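INFO  loader      accepted 1 record
INFO  loader      residues=226
INFO  predictor   begin
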Amino acid sequence: MTHSRPLLPPPLPLLPPLPLLAFCALIGSLVLAPTDAYASEFRSAAEVLGKFKSEPSVLDLQNMVLEYSKTDSHYVDAWLAASTAAALLPEVTFGYGYDNGYGQDFDYIDLDGDGIATAADESVNASGVDVKHGFDAKAKWSLSKLVMSSERIRVISETQDIVKLRDKVLDEATRLYFDRRRLQVDMLMNEGDLKTQIKNQLRLEELTAQLDAYTGGQFSRAVKNP
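INFO  predictor   done
INFO  writer      dumping tokens
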């Protein structure tokens, strides 16, 4: 009894083995090609950051924050100067008086000849109205307030609170600014897939909105109109 064996297709020719180094280079090019190709457009960090030179600098942002929050030092200096100048103004008082007097003069004449002057003998000799108006003004200076006054003490106390507020808003705005800039650089160097692009764009808009909250919208206007 004979058994027939199935016919097998001839074996495929083997490809010559690639050198290990060439193989690794091939894999690396496939995995890193998009990022490296995009990043190769820039030769230095200055070139990358130069892409954003039309946007406000961090110093521009800080000036916007100080102006919007009214915590700039020139506001404090103006308040202190005003508190001192206020002492130069006198305390002024005005007075007005009005007097309306009416009078009559009477003469008693013995009309009936009995030697006794009675009400029946009364006659009006003269009458008149006396009206007087009076004005006066007084000015009082407290020169001691030029040295120190309650207003100046209050301004100095409020200045300390303003300095704390200024430091707080500047620190937060500066942090948001560089968070936004790092995100911009990452979006520029690593495009990513569609989901990553949407996520990054929403985060960029969120950071921009937060900076607008600290500047009253000045930051966005400066970005759109460099």
